[in-house]
Specification:
By secondary structure, this protein is α+β, with helices and mostly antiparallel strands. The protein has 8 helices and 15 strands. It has 2 domains: about 250 residues, Glucose Oxidase, domain 1; about 35 residues, no CATH class. A 9-stranded mixed β-sheet has the order 1-15-13-9-10-11-12-6-14. The chain has a two-stranded antiparallel ribbon with strand order 2-5. Strands 3-4 form a two-stranded antiparallel sheet. The chain starts with 8 loop residues before the first helix and ends with a strand.
């Protein structure tokens, strides 16, 4: 990271024009980079399944600020006893594993592919780029980039964000080549960071994570999605770019699988001796939603 220089404000101001995928798959497209998951990519992913071992990349859901969990009192149905659950949760944020819809973030008043933000959202749900576009799931080649394993602390720290150069170095260390249509699973060590910083508060404390310039890397590698545990570095040092790498949504139409847990995957990759696998994730069918909880899986 020592030889890396952050881009200037002028360079960042040019990201939208330089990197955006608007119109690439037609102006009626609402799937964005999911279009890079072709039949050939799915066949490639299928060829990586050798033992059938599956690994969950989802976080556990339990009592926490993002969820209100109510267990109803038991009731009797003749000779049977039953109990029902109710879950109320806020999945956007820093706790629940979910997939962002492309309507989740706009840029200068416009959603991906140039639809007006305000006119595309109603009380009944989004009319453009809702999560519906991914209801059939995402299945493609996945690769793990274990950034945390190369950090002396065992996690990415505040003020030392992940850079494009570091992502390339991590891929080289793992012996994998990131290819178009891949889902890149990035392990930044969120779990260890939170354990080491018990007073850290999401949205209040500074966030470690991916530098804004990683948008360049996402576009260069032409990935279909990123599945990450720590997400963006926030705040950024670039005025106007507060959403940081989440701007991959309106700029690139990139699929973001937020708040994943790559810890089990990192162990599995070490045991399997490889850092590529079949990746699959499907959102809950919340019609018109700005995202949805999901359960990503890796299969070896």
């Amino acid at each position: 990271m020592a030889d890396w220089m952050p881009p200037t404000q002028d360079r960042v101001e040019g990201y939208f024009k330089e990197l955006n995928n608007w119109g690439r798959w037609g102006h009626a497209d609402q799937r964005g980079t999911a279009n890079l998951i072709t039949a050939a990519k799915r066949a490639q992913a299928k060829s990586l399944v050798r033992t059938g071992r599956t690994v969950s990349l989802a976080r556990d859901i339990g009592p926490q600020p993002a969820i209100m969990y109510h267990v109803t009192f038991p009731s009797s149905r003749e000779r049977a006893d039953v109990v029902l659950d109710r879950f109320d949760l806020v999945y956007h944020g820093f706790t629940i594993t979910h997939i962002d819809a492309l309507c989740h973030v706009a840029w200068d008043g416009e959603l991906y592919n140039g639809r007006p933000f305000r006119d595309s959202l109603t009380a009944a749900g989004a009319t453009w780029c809702a999560i519906d576009a991914y209801f059939d799931g995402l299945t493609t080649r996945g690769v793990l980039l274990d950034v945390a394993a190369g950090r002396k602390e065992g996690y990415v720290t505040v003020g030392q964000p992940v850079t494009p150069n570091e992502l390339d170095a991590v891929a080289a260390r793992a012996g994998v080549k990131v290819e178009p249509g891949d889902v890149v699973v990035v392990r930044n060590g969120d779990e260890a960071f939170r354990q080491a910083h018990p007073d850290w508060v999401p949205r209040v404390s500074p966030h470690p994570g991916m530098h804004l310039s990683c948008l360049e890397w996402f576009r260069e590698k032409d990935i279909a999605a990123i599945s990450w545990d720590m997400m963006d570095e926030r705040p950024t040092t670039y005025p106007g770019f507060a959403m940081s790498t989440h701007l991959a949504i309106p700029f690139l139409g990139l699929v973001l699988v937020d708040n994943t847990n790559p810890e089990r995957l990192a162990r599995a990759c070490a045991e399997e001796g490889r850092y590529e696998f079949l990746f699959t994730a499907t959102p809950i069918r919340l019609v018109g939603a700005t995202g949805a909880p999901a359960h990503p899986l890796a299969m070896f």
